[in-house]
Amino acid sequence: SHYSQAKFNLSAPDISHLGADKGIEVAFAGRSNAGKSSALNRLTRQKSLARTSKTPGRTQLINVFDLDEERRLVDLPGYGYAKVPMAIKLKWQKSLGEYLQKRESLQGLVVLMDIRHPFKDLDQELIQWAVAADLPVLGLLTKADKLKSGKRKAQLLMAREASLAFCGDVTIHLFSSLNGLGLDNCERVLDKWFGY
Ligand code: GTP
Ligand code: MG
């Protein structure tokens, strides 16, 4: 897979420290502990490319992984973690907004949401920003392995229904980093964004 080529490039404390704004970038965003880093590791077939943790708020930096000279995957810090001071929360929300609006190379946003409680306020706000910036969104319902098949399907249907409210290019799929469920669907969407 193209994605197994991923190599760590840099960690940035904020958007202004990212590399040159050229080529194609796809970013992974979501609440703390939603499974962003785990999903990136599954996608890239590398167990510890992105650092994962049971402690929410682990990824505090923006981590950039290069697929090749033109294409990058970006692991964004999680939002919504209660113990983060308000000033830092606000600063991060502001720079996230700027990133979505100004980053020319950003071709798509993957929003990861725990299947047991998707579309929290900040998720909705983020998707709204992305839609307003004309960015396509792939919503992944993570940790799908935690639910039995019936409940899993019900959550997917509910999430797809909810996603219609955004009036933009929003696709929703199931995902499990544990067993690989939905990886094929995820890759299909990313392949399109990356031009593979
Ligand atoms: P932050 O960097 O803190 O924002 O978190 P994150 O979104 O990167 O989450 P991370 O990938 O570190 O995963 C958080 C926890 O959820 C870890 O304990 C993972 O092992 C677990 N987890 C992630 N994905 C899955 C999944 O698909 N299934 C199950 N069962 N657990 C998962
Ligand atoms: Mg992380």
From TrEMBL:
One of its GO terms (cellular component) is cytosol. GO terms for biological process: division septum assembly. The keyword Cell cycle applies. Transmembrane segments: none annotated. It comes from the Bacteria. InterPro entries: G_ENGB_dom, GTP-bd, GTP-bd_ribosome_bio_YsxC, P-loop_NTPase. Residues 22-196 form the EngB-type G domain. Necessary for normal cell division and for the maintenance of normal septation. Belongs to the TRAFAC class TrmE-Era-EngA-EngB-Septin-like GTPase superfamily. EngB GTPase family. This is Probable GTP-binding protein EngB.
